[in-house]
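Let us practice reading a record.
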Amino acid sequence: MTQTLPVAIVGSGPAGLMAATSAVKAGATNVTIFEKRPAPGRKLLIAGSSGLNVAYEAPLAEALTHYMPAAEALTDALTAFPPQEWLRFITAELKLEVFCGTSRRWFVKEMKAASLLKAWRQWLEDRGVKFRCGSELTGIRQEAASPLTLIFTDGSEVPCRTAVLALGGGSWEDAGEPRWPALLQGLGVTFIPFRSSNCGLHVAPWPETLVKEADREPLKDVVLTTPRGSKQGDLLITAYGLEGTPLYWVGEPGPATLDLLPQWSPEKVRARLAETTENLSPLRRARKLLPLTPGTEALLFHLTPPEKRQDLDTLCSNLKALPLTLTQRRPLSEAISSAGGVPFSEVGSDLQLHKIPGVYLAGEMLDWDAPTGGLLIQGCVALGHRAGQASTSKIFDAWRRNRV
């Protein structure tokens, strides 16, 4: 019979890799990471293809306000493994350099995920962790007086004492949504359907004339305000609406406003527009006297009703608070991450499933959400750290009980 593994980790994203890391640090030996794809860390590589944000520079109390929901188990995990510990692991143990940018985001020096993944995998392999790729989980069997058994696509059955499932959310899947939700639902675990997160949103109305003139035009250093708050950054005009970091932080369907000149006060805008005596239309006057970009001009023209385009008060108001109506989010196939998954009510404070003792969950397969820019990966590694540590502690606790 196959040797019983103390801890099996299923999934090789940041949560799975950190679960294996914390299990090893807690004393586990003979740990194996199972991955359904041919190589580990695919989503990490995709997320870091244009610059890997590994953490966000903020006090813990502030950072927690960006996690939804800030469930007790998630809060406990982030408190136990905050950004400082994650950065220390990267620098002191993986021997990689990091730096904090002006956006408060921490990056690995190479700006790519490949170096982090390579160093992390080597660190794990040096400590005896094995990788078994091409193995997708298809079943879990648990019987009285026998080990937990994981069943994979090739028909192999792997007994283990505990298992950490870090199977990811619904984004960046090759063939629709992942198959693990049906597996857990078949075992009585509640599942909340995935929904897009960290993605673009449609804007209505969004005139075709605007798209023809300004598709893919950037909006630099604007401020988006919604009922969730305000966020400054860059947006991109698209065929359906808007895309960009401010949407990832505060975007939601409903009313919104755009401050197109956040560095200018309303009084300064009005005073500047009053400086010319030329008989110019309000928009032509703004084009001459203010630092407008092609994208800004297009929004001001096409989103202002024709009967209001000659009104200076309307122009001044729209420059500082252009009203928008955000409608639906872009499809899950385009989203950077997903919300939904297994609700925290299905796990204990140690992230162990109530209905399948010995199985722990970590990462995006749980129902939580956070913006990109370091907060998303921080949540994943914190949950992985918590699950790996707890799953290993359960083994040693059982061993101690048997010794008494």
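A brief commentary: Residues 172 and 333 are 6 Å apart (CA to CA).
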